[in-house]
Fold this protein.
Amino acid sequence: MIVTSPIDQTSTWTRAQIVAVIKGWWVLLLTGLVSILAGGVIVFSEWTVDGLVAFVGTLLIVRGALTMFSVPVDGSLRTWSVVLGVVEVFVGIGVFAWPGPTLLVVATSIGWLLIFRGTMAIIGSIMSRGLLPYWGLILATGILEAVVGLYLLGRPGLTLVATVLAIGFASMLYGALEVVTAFGVKNLPWRSAPLDGAHSRADDAGRLLDQVGGRRT
């Protein structure tokens, strides 16, 4: 999870927060890779409406499950990851469960989800810009997600091709950002300010790496 709650931000992180965020970097990486792969499949495959519904519904359920197990990299409460993960899962189930699924159902469901997620990214990235790796990229992505969401909601007569392109490229873009952020999070101790005035930056980084299971050579 990249950015969750815009109201939980603090000016500093505790050692426990940083360790928890670093330990969860691989979940963010995996979620990003899934999104990139799925976005590529969506864009470059031939689809029927029923096929797109099934694929997008499955993608949302898988992404939601991964999001629920992720740790927010903005230092906010993990509860927000669970909330957004549950929302994604329910949207995915809703796409499946809707009687006679149509392109409008898919576009509307994804549109609202992108607006919700994009709004959290916009506000959260600004509030935590002093702590969050690549906060500018996250802000830009949040804006683009919100724009794509508004596009999907504002075009009730969307064609299958337009819907596929919007959802596919949005998925690849967000996935790429998650991958970049995952590696930034993995290296977080080496870019963080000392957590204790009595120790050097390298000492603090080393101690944090020890706590997450390994020391850089």
